[in-house]
């Protein structure tokens, strides 16, 4: 795999070149690089129409509309969105040895979906499984479970499982009961408690569950594996936004997953060679996201006594979490 | 014999007078009380409208604690709704004569708490305007849909169950109503006439009524059990720590019966004092109901023990965090106060006969009812603050929860609404099932008469000396 | 046919940067704001796609925050061709968001006697970035796939040739050809050993493994590439082959289940039985109430009961 120099577009050695300058653990100037990861390398001429995009630290960035993916393409009908893409079963793989916790995947996702900064559909945790094991970075999207508890409890079929494995939300049907949020064991869902902040252009988009825009107050949202990107043959925002090539995405039926550099590998071989596993497997939710353990990791482990937001008195929380899992 | 009949009819007359007096008099205090309740309810409605305008973000709920005070109150109200089933149905079916004076208030409490309990989840919805999606697109695999079906069915059932025994009393009110000059009285006449369903006390009517009541008594028990079971399922069908338990169904039903029966005692206490019904709701009633609450509290304590001791023994990873927080962390004070103050203490007090006297028992029941409400909060909120994945890198107000003014206002408004309906009901309709208590008086007299005749006969035959009970 | 290649090792990069710095030190320009211009670098590559379209792309990077190299967007790159008669400008291209400026291959581009094209890309006269330059020399190669119709071992032969000045195809030996299969988002190496060097006839033979899935029809697209060759750049060709395992169509993607829109029949039947029973009872009682209502014209009984 080290010999791999396959590039699917006109950028030989681009990623390699960029890696020289990237030091592990540091995050690059927000905005530019993150946005550039999801902007198309196509030759479209700019339209001059600017769209508002959020970055993670709350900065507002405007990008020309043509560089953002095709929200203007007619969205799929509700019926099609509920059926999904035939013959595909999407799956994502995270290589924890390569994740350096830079959170650029989060930023790319927030830029793609015009998400408010406090909502992290892709969340990067600092995990510590036990007192004696070492911490690691753990990026978590929605797992699009095959036995998803959230879909089971929805009273109105507003969240549904498609035949391509993706679980979507129909915000024109959601009644905001938040049963799905109670049922999800991975805290993956976010609720629009107040009126969503979105630009006028986003508000005018024709709604489809596949793009989840425009947002509606009192409904639920979550990572959706970017189905509108998949239909355009592009990788989801987080996958292409990862400068470490730590995220792979692909079709399980094809037994192939691709990362940001275009490196495509055989899924079964990847999982076999790197001992792939699923998070909290014994909950039985059958997630569609696999993790490769952080063996021989390329970047330093996270610093665990960094201030994190905790519920309750800080001392108790720290003590409690430090004792056992999930610091 | 004639004398006895005279006695009976006297008693019955006094009974009817006692029962109907509150419906004819609206004192100043009553009006003040109703005014106060209307004010609280109005404020609650205002808070709800505020919530409708700006979204659920005006509450303190955020993405981790996404169910808070509203769902707590919902579960609590549905729990209280088991009161009528217990007292009315179970005591009826086991032919306990002493239930007669308290069935009406118990059934009313059930009906009112079901009504408001059904409203609470609607208040909690993010898009209440789409509520009918449940009917159009409903999925019967969802515990929430089971809630809707069961609560609606129980509501209709408890309406029937409340209404059926009211029919003869409505006829009584209808016939007794004089002074139909004012518009208010004209309205009352119309109301009683309509609700009496043309009741004349004929044999066939009695037959139909009794048959219907027997059927309802039997089927309302499983309906009530199913209601609180499916309410527990909205938690138990998830994989969260503290909720992922197999004993939730019986745990919640035991909690409902325990808090509901305490609610009945409170109703008994209040109406006995207010309407001077000491002749009918006697110390014996409090003693017997107190024993029932004692038994139910013991069962509830047993459920509590199972629910906490079993995971505590194991301290599995995720449950360990939650239990540590409950036993020795930020929720420890509340948790142990609940266990010792609202479960153990009532058991101790009610074990003694003095503890089952009206005043003390009423205090204990207030503790139980408030404790049940706080317990529901302890079941819901700490679990939501201990998800499987850690809470990291989020705004500070996501990582804690305490209800804010909007949630308190709406909840207090709901409570005020409950009390308002009960108050209004008691001003229009008798708070005891008059015909049932009459029936009780007659049965008592018949029993006494039968005992007297037997004594006389035995004395005449002179077989044995009459031994008077010492 | 050389091309200056910037290698991955960091030390060599710094050497290159140092060289640039040295080169630019004489012509160091200070912009109007009085700040030094940023260091920049250009990297060139030639890419011939399967549809025979050709492009030359320049990746422009610059030093960003904390001395990290980031792509430079919106920068003007001037492409020149170098012939015997000198350097002529071809086109000016603006780099896109990824820092890449793409020059479509001009048909009239002149090559020298050996068929070598020489292209220079320059970042110059930019107010933000220091000048940088890169040159590339390459030849055009043809890559074709041949199938043996009688073959059953999923064998394919790739032929690498050059077009001679007389128009004849000259086979090219010892050129590494990589064999891939097209997947949804990229091309996957077909096997562990997927790089085969051409023999003296310019042919590389590869056998595709039998465990590649091929969608509903069992058809896969095989892709052969010459990757980052010193002489030829990147050349690619594709072809369809019916060598994939058929993935059968899911006959019932939404069966009755707890997770699906339609509920399992056992659940529905149980609920209908229970609540059907209860509501039938209710309607029976409503009927009784109706009957009570209608009984009022029966004569009164003279007992003391209401």
SSE diagram, text form:
The complex is a heterotrimer of chains A (about 325), B (about 475) and C (about 300).
Chain A: H1 14-21, H2 32-38, E1 50-54, E2 60-64, H3 78-83, E3 90-95, H4 104-113, E4 123-127, E5 136-140, H5 149-153, E6 159-161, E7 167-169, H6 179-183, E8 190-191, H7 200-203, E9 220-221, H8 227-231, H9 237-240, E10 247-251, E11 256-258, E12 264-266, H10 267-273, E13 289-292, H11 314-323
Parallel strand pairs in A: 3-13
Antiparallel strand pairs in A: 1-2, 3-10, 4-5, 6-7, 8-9, 10-11, 11-12
Chain B: H1 2-24, H2 28-54, H3 69-80, H4 82-93, H5 103-124, H6 133-137, H7 143-163, H8 166-176, H9 183-196, H10 203-236, H11 248-274, H12 283-314, H13 317-328, H14 332-351, H15 358-384, H16 405-428, H17 434-461
Chain C: H1 10-26, E1 40-48, E2 54-63, E3 69-71, E4 76-83, E5 86-94, E6 100-104, E7 117-123, E8 132-138, E9 141-147, E10 155-163, E11 169-171, E12 176-182, E13 187-189, E14 195-197, E15 203-207, E16 220-229, E17 233-241, H2 265-294
Parallel strand pairs in C: 1-17
Antiparallel strand pairs in C: 1-2, 2-3, 2-6, 4-5, 4-7, 7-8, 9-10, 10-11, 10-15, 12-13, 12-14, 12-16, 16-17
Which fold does the CATH topology of chain B refer to? Formate dehydrogenase/DMSO reductase fold
Helix content of chain B: over 70%
Question: Any idea what the shape of chain C is?
Answer: elongated
User: How would you classify the helix and strand content of chain C by structural class?
Assistant: alpha+beta
Architecture overview:
The complex is a heterotrimer of chains A (327), B (470) and C (306). With 327 residues, chain A is an alpha+beta fold. Chain A is 22% helix and 16% strand. Chain B has a single domain, classed as Up-down Bundle (Formate dehydrogenase/DMSO reductase fold). Chain C is α+β, with helices and mostly antiparallel strands. In chain C, strands 1, 2, 3, 6, 12, 13, 14, 16 and 17 form a nine-stranded mixed beta sheet that branches. A four-stranded antiparallel beta sheet of chain C has the order 5-4-7-8, with no helix packed on it. In chain C, strands 9, 10, 11 and 15 form a four-stranded antiparallel beta sheet that branches. In chain C, a hairpin with a 7-residue loop joins strand 9 and strand 10. Chain C is elongated and about 120 Å long. The interface between A and B is large, with 56 and 61 residues.
